[in-house]
Amino acid sequence: MRSCTCGKPIKSESATNVRFWDEEYCSRYCREYDERGLEMVNRADMLKEKGSKHYKNFSGMWDYPSIKAKCICCGEETVTLTKTNDQDKPYCSRTCHSRIHRMPKARKNQIVFTMLRVMKHRYLNYEGSEQWLSGSAMYNIMQKMGGHPFKNGYPMIMKIWAGRGLLLKKDNNYRNEEGNSRKEVIYCFNPAHLDKPLGKAFYECAGAKWE
Ligand SMILES: [Zn+2]
Ligand SMILES: [Zn+2]
Question: pLDDT value at position 141?
Answer without folding.
Answer: 85
